[in-house]
Specification:
single chain
Protein backbone atom coordinates (compact mmCIF):
# COMPACT_ATOMS: atom_id res chain seq x y z
CA UNK A 1 0.00 0.00 0.00
CA UNK A 2 1.82 3.11 -1.25
CA UNK A 3 -0.26 5.45 0.95
CA UNK A 4 0.60 3.67 4.20
CA UNK A 5 1.45 6.24 6.88
CA UNK A 6 3.46 6.18 10.10
CA UNK A 7 0.52 6.10 12.53
CA UNK A 8 -0.85 2.98 10.89
CA UNK A 9 2.08 0.81 11.97
CA UNK A 10 2.41 1.97 15.57
CA UNK A 11 0.99 -1.35 16.79
CA UNK A 12 3.29 -3.54 14.73
CA UNK A 13 5.47 -4.18 17.78
CA UNK A 14 2.69 -6.32 19.26
CA UNK A 15 2.84 -8.86 16.43
CA UNK A 16 5.33 -10.96 18.35
CA UNK A 17 5.32 -13.90 15.92
CA UNK A 18 5.68 -11.81 12.76
CA UNK A 19 8.34 -13.19 10.44
CA UNK A 20 8.07 -10.84 7.46
CA UNK A 21 7.55 -7.07 7.49
CA UNK A 22 7.47 -5.51 4.03
CA UNK A 23 7.06 -1.73 3.77
CA UNK A 24 8.69 -1.34 0.36
CA UNK A 25 7.54 1.63 -1.72
CA UNK A 26 5.37 3.21 0.98
CA UNK A 27 5.24 6.69 2.51
CA UNK A 28 6.60 5.48 5.84
CA UNK A 29 9.22 7.87 7.25
CA UNK A 30 9.75 6.48 10.73
CA UNK A 31 9.58 3.13 12.50
CA UNK A 32 8.28 2.71 16.06
CA UNK A 33 10.82 1.80 18.72
CA UNK A 34 8.64 -1.23 19.52
CA UNK A 35 10.04 -2.77 16.33
CA UNK A 36 12.62 -4.45 18.55
CA UNK A 37 9.87 -6.59 20.10
CA UNK A 38 9.58 -8.63 16.90
CA UNK A 39 11.93 -11.37 18.08
CA UNK A 40 10.77 -13.81 15.38
CA UNK A 41 11.24 -11.40 12.47
CA UNK A 42 13.27 -12.88 9.60
CA UNK A 43 12.82 -10.24 6.87
CA UNK A 44 12.57 -6.45 7.10
CA UNK A 45 12.07 -4.72 3.74
CA UNK A 46 12.28 -0.92 3.84
CA UNK A 47 13.38 -0.39 0.23
CA UNK A 48 12.08 2.70 -1.58
CA UNK A 49 10.77 4.37 1.55
CA UNK A 50 11.65 7.74 3.10
CA UNK A 51 13.00 6.23 6.30
CA UNK A 52 16.28 7.92 7.24
CA UNK A 53 17.18 6.06 10.43
CA UNK A 54 16.48 2.71 12.05
CA UNK A 55 15.49 2.76 15.73
CA UNK A 56 18.10 1.60 18.23
CA UNK A 57 15.83 -1.33 19.11
CA UNK A 58 16.58 -2.85 15.69
CA UNK A 59 19.64 -4.52 17.23
CA UNK A 60 17.28 -6.75 19.25
CA UNK A 61 15.99 -8.48 16.09
CA UNK A 62 18.28 -11.44 16.72
CA UNK A 63 16.47 -13.73 14.22
CA UNK A 64 16.71 -11.24 11.35
CA UNK A 65 18.07 -12.85 8.18
CA UNK A 66 17.31 -10.25 5.48
CA UNK A 67 17.46 -6.46 5.81
CA UNK A 68 16.64 -4.30 2.79
CA UNK A 69 17.15 -0.54 3.15
CA UNK A 70 18.29 2.46 1.12
CA UNK A 71 21.96 3.42 1.43
CA UNK A 72 20.92 6.79 2.91
CA UNK A 73 19.51 5.07 6.03
CA UNK A 74 21.49 5.41 9.25
CA UNK A 75 22.02 2.10 11.01
CA UNK A 76 22.14 2.05 14.82
CA UNK A 77 25.28 1.21 16.73
CA UNK A 78 25.30 -2.46 17.57
CA UNK A 79 23.99 -3.58 14.18
CA UNK A 80 26.81 -6.14 14.22
CA UNK A 81 24.85 -8.05 16.88
CA UNK A 82 22.49 -9.33 14.17
CA UNK A 83 24.77 -12.29 13.64
CA UNK A 84 22.21 -14.38 11.72
CA UNK A 85 21.93 -11.75 8.99
CA UNK A 86 22.52 -13.20 5.52
CA UNK A 87 21.42 -10.35 3.26
CA UNK A 88 22.12 -6.64 3.74
CA UNK A 89 21.15 -4.29 0.95
CA UNK A 90 22.05 -1.51 0.68
CA UNK A 91 24.23 0.15 3.31
CA UNK A 92 26.03 3.48 2.86
CA UNK A 93 29.30 4.13 4.66
CA UNK A 94 28.70 7.89 4.87
CA UNK A 95 25.27 7.32 6.46
CA UNK A 96 26.44 4.52 8.76
CA UNK A 97 30.19 4.86 9.40
CA UNK A 98 29.93 2.31 12.21
CA UNK A 99 29.37 -0.37 9.57
CA UNK A 100 33.06 -0.40 8.62
CA UNK A 101 33.90 -2.11 11.91
CA UNK A 102 30.62 -3.87 12.72
CA UNK A 103 30.38 -5.52 9.30
CA UNK A 104 33.03 -8.01 10.38
CA UNK A 105 30.68 -9.40 13.03
CA UNK A 106 28.09 -10.35 10.39
CA UNK A 107 29.92 -13.51 9.46
CA UNK A 108 26.80 -15.26 8.09
CA UNK A 109 26.39 -12.66 5.34
CA UNK A 110 25.92 -14.11 1.86
CA UNK A 111 24.78 -10.95 0.09
CA UNK A 112 25.82 -7.36 0.69
CA UNK A 113 25.33 -4.18 -1.31
CA UNK A 114 27.52 -1.40 0.02
CA UNK A 115 27.87 2.21 -1.13
CA UNK A 116 31.07 4.19 -0.70
CA UNK A 117 30.58 7.93 -0.86
CA UNK A 118 31.82 11.00 0.92
CA UNK A 119 28.39 12.34 1.83
CA UNK A 120 28.57 16.11 2.09
CA UNK A 121 32.29 16.16 2.88
CA UNK A 122 35.37 14.27 1.76
CA UNK A 123 36.05 10.55 1.91
CA UNK A 124 37.67 9.52 5.18
CA UNK A 125 40.61 7.25 4.38
CA UNK A 126 40.59 5.98 7.96
CA UNK A 127 37.53 3.92 6.98
CA UNK A 128 39.52 1.85 4.51
CA UNK A 129 41.56 -0.47 6.74
CA UNK A 130 38.73 -1.39 9.15
CA UNK A 131 36.41 -1.93 6.19
CA UNK A 132 38.88 -4.31 4.57
CA UNK A 133 39.46 -6.06 7.89
CA UNK A 134 35.71 -6.57 8.17
CA UNK A 135 35.35 -7.81 4.60
CA UNK A 136 38.14 -10.31 5.20
CA UNK A 137 35.95 -11.95 7.86
CA UNK A 138 33.04 -12.45 5.45
CA UNK A 139 34.13 -15.91 4.40
CA UNK A 140 30.63 -16.97 3.28
CA UNK A 141 29.96 -14.01 1.00
CA UNK A 142 28.40 -14.98 -2.33
CA UNK A 143 27.17 -11.71 -3.81
CA UNK A 144 29.14 -8.49 -3.40
CA UNK A 145 28.04 -5.19 -4.93
CA UNK A 146 30.18 -2.13 -4.28
CA UNK A 147 29.02 1.22 -5.60
CA UNK A 148 31.30 4.22 -5.27
CA UNK A 149 30.69 7.92 -5.82
CA UNK A 150 33.74 10.15 -5.78
CA UNK A 151 35.68 7.67 -3.66
CA UNK A 152 39.05 6.29 -4.82
CA UNK A 153 38.74 2.51 -4.62
CA UNK A 154 42.34 1.45 -5.18
CA UNK A 155 42.30 -0.09 -1.71
CA UNK A 156 39.70 -2.63 -2.88
CA UNK A 157 41.65 -3.50 -6.03
CA UNK A 158 44.74 -4.18 -3.91
CA UNK A 159 42.89 -6.11 -1.22
CA UNK A 160 44.52 -9.45 -0.45
CA UNK A 161 41.65 -11.84 0.21
CA UNK A 162 40.13 -14.99 -1.21
CA UNK A 163 36.30 -14.90 -1.31
CA UNK A 164 36.03 -18.58 -2.19
CA UNK A 165 32.21 -18.64 -2.33
CA UNK A 166 31.78 -15.45 -4.38
CA UNK A 167 29.51 -15.99 -7.40
CA UNK A 168 28.37 -12.45 -8.26
CA UNK A 169 30.44 -9.25 -8.20
CA UNK A 170 29.50 -5.70 -9.17
CA UNK A 171 31.83 -2.79 -8.64
CA UNK A 172 33.40 0.40 -9.92
CA UNK A 173 37.16 0.22 -9.37
CA UNK A 174 40.26 1.61 -11.07
CA UNK A 175 41.63 -1.71 -12.30
CA UNK A 176 41.03 -5.43 -12.12
CA UNK A 177 41.44 -6.58 -8.49
CA UNK A 178 44.47 -8.76 -7.85
CA UNK A 179 42.20 -11.29 -6.12
CA UNK A 180 40.00 -11.77 -9.19
CA UNK A 181 41.62 -14.77 -10.84
CA UNK A 182 41.28 -18.49 -11.53
CA UNK A 183 41.00 -19.32 -7.81
CA UNK A 184 37.41 -18.01 -7.78
CA UNK A 185 35.88 -21.27 -8.92
CA UNK A 186 32.28 -20.28 -8.08
CA UNK A 187 32.28 -16.84 -9.68
CA UNK A 188 29.84 -16.81 -12.59
CA UNK A 189 28.80 -13.17 -12.99
CA UNK A 190 30.89 -9.98 -13.10
CA UNK A 191 29.70 -6.43 -13.74
CA UNK A 192 32.61 -4.01 -13.50
CA UNK A 193 33.53 -0.48 -14.42
CA UNK A 194 37.31 -0.18 -14.74
CA UNK A 195 39.41 2.88 -15.43
CA UNK A 196 41.86 0.77 -17.41
CA UNK A 197 41.94 -2.67 -19.02
CA UNK A 198 45.11 -4.53 -20.06
CA UNK A 199 45.82 -7.75 -21.91
CA UNK A 200 46.83 -9.53 -18.71
CA UNK A 201 43.49 -8.54 -17.17
CA UNK A 202 41.65 -10.33 -19.96
CA UNK A 203 43.85 -13.36 -19.40
CA UNK A 204 43.00 -13.42 -15.69
CA UNK A 205 39.29 -13.02 -16.39
CA UNK A 206 39.45 -15.73 -19.03
CA UNK A 207 40.84 -18.24 -16.55
CA UNK A 208 37.96 -17.88 -14.09
CA UNK A 209 36.63 -21.39 -14.72
CA UNK A 210 32.84 -20.95 -14.61
CA UNK A 211 32.41 -17.31 -15.60
CA UNK A 212 29.06 -17.14 -17.42
CA UNK A 213 28.18 -13.42 -17.60
CA UNK A 214 30.68 -10.58 -18.05
CA UNK A 215 29.78 -6.89 -18.25
CA UNK A 216 32.71 -4.51 -18.69
CA UNK A 217 32.59 -0.73 -18.85
CA UNK A 218 36.09 0.51 -19.60
CA UNK A 219 37.62 3.95 -19.43
CA UNK A 220 40.84 3.22 -21.29
CA UNK A 221 42.40 0.31 -23.16
CA UNK A 222 46.10 -0.13 -22.45
CA UNK A 223 47.90 -2.27 -25.00
CA UNK A 224 51.31 -2.48 -26.64
CA UNK A 225 49.56 -4.14 -29.58
CA UNK A 226 46.86 -2.61 -31.75
CA UNK A 227 43.98 -4.12 -29.81
CA UNK A 228 43.43 -6.39 -26.84
CA UNK A 229 43.01 -9.90 -28.19
CA UNK A 230 40.53 -12.53 -27.02
CA UNK A 231 41.01 -16.10 -28.18
CA UNK A 232 44.76 -16.66 -28.33
CA UNK A 233 44.46 -19.17 -25.48
CA UNK A 234 41.82 -21.85 -26.11
CA UNK A 235 41.50 -22.53 -22.38
CA UNK A 236 40.06 -19.07 -21.67
CA UNK A 237 36.39 -18.09 -21.30
CA UNK A 238 35.24 -21.67 -21.76
CA UNK A 239 31.88 -21.11 -20.05
CA UNK A 240 31.19 -17.48 -20.98
CA UNK A 241 27.72 -17.14 -22.49
CA UNK A 242 27.02 -13.39 -22.30
CA UNK A 243 29.52 -10.59 -22.91
CA UNK A 244 28.73 -6.89 -22.71
CA UNK A 245 31.54 -4.45 -23.48
CA UNK A 246 31.60 -0.66 -23.55
CA UNK A 247 34.64 1.58 -23.76
CA UNK A 248 34.46 5.33 -23.32
CA UNK A 249 36.83 5.68 -26.24
CA UNK A 250 37.74 3.37 -29.11
CA UNK A 251 36.53 -0.22 -29.41
CA UNK A 252 39.79 -1.91 -28.47
CA UNK A 253 38.93 -5.62 -28.62
CA UNK A 254 39.73 -8.20 -31.29
CA UNK A 255 38.15 -11.65 -31.35
CA UNK A 256 40.37 -14.20 -33.09
CA UNK A 257 39.47 -17.65 -34.37
CA UNK A 258 38.38 -19.97 -31.58
CA UNK A 259 37.49 -17.16 -29.18
CA UNK A 260 34.61 -17.59 -26.73
CA UNK A 261 33.49 -21.05 -27.89
CA UNK A 262 30.20 -21.01 -25.94
CA UNK A 263 29.23 -17.35 -26.30
CA UNK A 264 25.54 -16.97 -27.08
CA UNK A 265 24.93 -13.25 -26.57
CA UNK A 266 27.13 -10.23 -27.29
CA UNK A 267 26.41 -6.55 -26.59
CA UNK A 268 29.01 -3.96 -27.54
CA UNK A 269 29.25 -0.19 -27.86
CA UNK A 270 31.34 0.93 -30.82
CA UNK A 271 32.27 4.61 -30.84
CA UNK A 272 32.82 5.18 -34.53
CA UNK A 273 34.91 8.35 -34.50
CA UNK A 274 37.37 7.20 -31.84
CA UNK A 275 37.66 3.67 -33.26
CA UNK A 276 38.30 4.90 -36.80
CA UNK A 277 40.91 7.43 -35.67
CA UNK A 278 42.84 4.96 -33.50
CA UNK A 279 42.58 1.70 -35.44
CA UNK A 280 41.66 2.76 -38.97
CA UNK A 281 38.75 0.32 -39.36
CA UNK A 282 35.87 -1.35 -37.56
CA UNK A 283 37.05 -4.94 -37.87
CA UNK A 284 36.91 -6.58 -34.44
CA UNK A 285 36.64 -10.20 -35.57
CA UNK A 286 32.94 -10.80 -35.03
CA UNK A 287 33.02 -13.44 -37.75
CA UNK A 288 35.18 -15.59 -35.45
CA UNK A 289 32.43 -15.97 -32.84
CA UNK A 290 30.97 -19.19 -34.20
CA UNK A 291 28.43 -19.99 -31.48
CA UNK A 292 26.93 -16.53 -30.92
CA UNK A 293 23.17 -16.28 -31.48
CA UNK A 294 22.41 -12.69 -30.54
CA UNK A 295 24.57 -9.67 -31.36
CA UNK A 296 23.69 -6.11 -30.39
CA UNK A 297 26.02 -3.35 -31.57
CA UNK A 298 25.35 0.27 -30.67
CA UNK A 299 27.28 2.74 -32.79
CA UNK A 300 28.25 6.03 -31.17
CA UNK A 301 27.98 8.73 -33.83
CA UNK A 302 29.37 11.77 -32.02
CA UNK A 303 31.75 13.71 -34.29
CA UNK A 304 31.12 11.43 -37.29
CA UNK A 305 30.03 12.11 -40.83
CA UNK A 306 27.13 10.11 -42.18
CA UNK A 307 29.39 8.13 -44.50
CA UNK A 308 31.57 7.03 -41.57
CA UNK A 309 28.58 5.75 -39.64
CA UNK A 310 27.37 3.90 -42.74
CA UNK A 311 30.83 2.37 -43.15
CA UNK A 312 30.87 1.17 -39.53
CA UNK A 313 27.41 -0.34 -39.88
CA UNK A 314 28.34 -2.07 -43.14
CA UNK A 315 31.49 -3.60 -41.60
CA UNK A 316 29.51 -4.94 -38.66
CA UNK A 317 26.77 -6.40 -40.87
CA UNK A 318 29.29 -8.16 -43.09
CA UNK A 319 30.93 -9.76 -40.07
CA UNK A 320 27.73 -11.20 -38.61
Amino acid sequence: CHDLENHRITGVGKLFHLRYLGLRDTNITKLPRQLGNLHCLHTLDLSQTSITELPSSTVHLKQLVRLYIEDSVKLPKGIGKLNLLRELSSVGVSSSPNIVTELGNLTELRIIHITLDSGTGTWCKSYEKPLLDSMFKLQKIQKLHIRSFGVPTDFIADFGWFPQHLNDFLGSIPRLPCWMNSSLSKLHQINMSLNILRQEDLQNLGLIPFLYVLHLNIGKIESTEERLVIGTDSSQFQCLYHLSFDSLYAMGLMFVQGALPNLGSLNIMLRARETKDLYGDFNIGLENLCSVREVSVKIGCTGCRRCEVDSAEADIRRAI
